[in-house]
Amino acid sequence: MLDFKDFTWQDKDIYTKYYQASPVHCSEYSFFALWAWLHAYPLEAAYTENLCWLRASGKFPGIIGPAGNWNAVTDWGKELSCFKSGDVLHEVPAPVKELLSGRDNLSFTPDRDQAEYVYRVKDMISLKGKAYAHKRNRVRAFLDGYEWDYDAITPNDFSELLDFQERWRIQRGDTMTPDEAESLNDEDKAIRCALDKWQDFPFSGGIIRVDGKIIAYTIAEELDPQNLDIRFEKAFSEYAGSYQAINYLFLKNYGYKYEFVNREEDMGESGLREAKMSYNPVMMLEKFQINIL
């Protein structure tokens, strides 16, 4: 049987070892991605020799995962024996699905809404070719249209950044549904977690100021030496091209060190899906729902 216990800050070191051993580093499974949203999505963790299984309660209950060295597992039957008929494993990375395919007691359903978008950094910086013409024009419109400054985020910026975050949320308030407002409140708490524990994670970030005030920022997390993840990205849309500009300037000034940048999932939102597809991902990190029959 799996020994599930509350997933807390004290899991950081052991869980990170399992995550780093994963053959593919999905952004959703980094320790920060799990810990910073515990207020909204409580988790329990159970560790086996090679894997960490996660059990969620709250809004979306169920088994999630696993993280760990999937390729080192020699007896998947033993791992799965902990589950019973009717159990559902959510957001299972595609490589795990492939390792489990062919078992007659499992059924697999693609979870497109949770697939993560991965881009080549050099493409996002150069914006070359017809496919990027619109993005290139939006970046140019911002760079040529405003007196702006770009800086890397440091702890000295946190107070100002939180002030921007509050103004951004107020601006969005008139157009949000109750569900969207709840989601943004959860995200706001996660952003504050990031700033509070800035020195404990491989974070980086950038800020754009116009007339001395922040009008856009991004916060990113290193998933591994090749992959950078955009955790948070906000801008005042009344500044034409501001979203495209913060993406471009951050990757140009810092993200060039990485081969790939992960911009996470679209959660089934049509507008978000269209925006993420418009940057021409080079790969999708697919996930599946697995039903135990």
| Count of DSSP strands | 14
Q: In percent terms, what proportion of residues is strand?
A: 25-35%
- Which whole number gives the mean pLDDT? 95
Radius of gyration: 20 Å
Unreliable residue runs: none
The biggest beta sheet is recorded as: 7 strands, mixed
Shape: globular
Distance between the termini: 18 Å
Task: Tell me the series of helices and strands, N- to C-terminal.
Answer: EHHEEEHEHEEHHEHHEEEHEHEE
Give the number of helices.
10
**Helix content estimate:** 25-40%
Spatial strand sequence of the major β-sheet: 1-2-3-4-5-14-6
Structural class comes to alpha+beta
Topology:
Elements lengths: L4 E2 L5 H10 L9 H5 L7 E5 L3 E6 L5 E7 L7 H5 L7 E6 H7 L5 E5 L5 E5 H6 L6 H13 L2 E5 L5 H16 L4 H19 L6 E8 L2 E12 L2 E9 L6 H12 L6 E3 L7 H8 L5 E3 L1 E6 L1
Helix pairs in contact: 6-9, 7-8
Describe what this molecule looks like in 3D.
This protein has 293 residues and is an alpha+beta fold. 34% of the residues lie in helices and 28% in strands. The protein contains ten helices and 14 strands. The protein has helices at residues 12-21, 31-35, 76-80, 94-100, 121-126, 133-145, 158-173, 178-196, 242-253, 270-277, and strands spanning 5-6, 43-47, 51-56, 62-68, 88-93, 106-110, 116-120, 148-152, 203-210, 213-224, 227-235, 260-262, 283-285, 287-292. The protein has a seven-stranded mixed beta sheet with strand order 1-2-3-4-5-14-6. A seven-stranded mixed beta sheet has the order 8-9-10-11-12-7-13, sandwiched between helices. Helix 6 (133-145) crosses helix 9 and helix 7 runs antiparallel to helix 8 (178-196). The radius of gyration is 20 Å and the shape is globular. The mean pLDDT is 95.
